[in-house]
Amino acid sequence: DNFFDCLNVSSYTKAIHSRKFFQKPYCKPDDGRLQYLREVLMYLDDWKKSVMKRIGFDEKEKNMMMLPQETRDGMYITVSSFVELVPLLLKIPGAKCFYSSRINQDPLEKFFGMQRQSGKSNENPTVSQFIKNTENFRVIGSIWVDDITGNCRGRKSKDTDLIAAKQPLRKRQRRKSH
């Protein structure tokens, strides 16, 4: 719980109301939670070492005793990057605090998910197909309404009215006939 709270700080008041220290915004470059995150990585290393030392299990059984390699790699990359990024951001003049939930790769995941969907059964588009799809997304993006469901952060309400739809259209001037 604390690990996920460290990486999903979204507001100061949420930390106060929930009484969870790990959900407070980052305000100091040497915040203790950064050391906690480093210790989580050390724990993962120790876990892997202890599983590999076990006798009487084959490689497949040992792999079943720990997180998948892809998950571990993702955690190492995310946590290492995050631990380096927070102090850098807090040293920027005028930066008072940092909310970790503000950085996420949901838009990137969504974009590449749309690329895969547009390729139908072709999950490996050529460069020209990728560029064409991207151009199509730009055109569609001006009229696109995000779905509020799914695993990416999107719109907050179910109101599908667009802001532009609430504004009256500008009257068109008539041409003067000669």
| Quaternary state of the chains | single chain
Q: Element order, helices and strands?
A: HHHHHHHH
Proportion of residues in extended strands = under 5%
Largest sheet: none
Flag low-confidence runs: none
Q: Give the class from helix and strand content and strand pairing.
A: mainly alpha
Number of helices: 8
Summarize model confidence as the mean pLDDT.
76
Number of strands: 0
Give the termini distance in whole angstroms.
76 Å
Form type? flat
- Rg, nearest Å: 24 Å
Amount of helix: 40-55%
Give a quick set of tags describing it.
178 residues, mainly alpha, single chain
Describe this structure in words.
The longest helix is centred in the first third of the chain and has 22 residues, at 32-53. Helix 3 packs antiparallel against helix 5. Helices cover 53% and strands 0% of the residues. It has 178 residues and is mainly α. The chain has helices at residues 2-7, 12-18, 32-53, 59-64, 69-90, 106-118, 127-141, 163-166. It has eight helices and no strands.
What topology does this entry show?
Elements lengths: L1 H6 L4 H7 L13 H22 L5 H6 L4 H22 L15 H13 L8 H15 L21 H4 L12
Helix pairs in contact: 3-5
Brief write-up:
With 178 residues, this protein is mostly helical. The chain has helices at 2-7, 12-18, 32-53, 59-64, 69-90, 106-118, 127-141, 163-166.
